[in-house]
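To whoever is on call:

I kicked off a structure prediction for a single chain this morning and the downstream step that reads the tokens threw a length-mismatch warning. I double-checked the sequence; it's 172 residues and nothing unusual in it as far as I can see. Pasting both halves so you can look.
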Amino acid sequence: MKLNNLRHSSAEHISQTLLYVMVVLCMVVFILFWTVGYDRPSTESANFNDPLFTNALIALMWLMLICAAGITVWSIVTTLKKRGDAQRYENGIPVKKISYGVMLSTVSIVLLTLLFASTTPIPVNGTLYADKLWLRITDMFVTTSLIMMAAAITAVVYSGWRNRKLHRKEEK
């Protein structure tokens, strides 16, 4: 894909290409991580293996995290600039209220799960890991993910139940 044609490509085509590139990149890094140099004894403890591509894997994860955060901020700013006050409703649906509601609830869930996260030390490779910041952040991500998955499942079930109920009314 040429850079000149990027502006003329559809959003679906661009996102699909990016998805394929990211999947292939992740596959290559993970395959290298698991297969190349995985049997090297660790410098800290001979009981553990020290994979050769650990730093590449960590760098990839940081890169993906930074890119995701940047794209999220850019997307929010662009959407708010484009929408403004003119498009509060689309087809009778309060899209602006829904957008702000989703954004505020996501930020609230993340902050609350960070605030109430556990800092209890956990055993890792036979020793207790007690870094309170990373324990709290890890617990925040796990709890937030579980809450959002539960909310998504609830929304799908409710939507299916409501659609079924509406179709039954139309049949009568």
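Update from on-call: the warning came from a stale cache, not from the record. Cleared it. Sanity check on the structure: The first strand starts at residue 122 and ends at 124.
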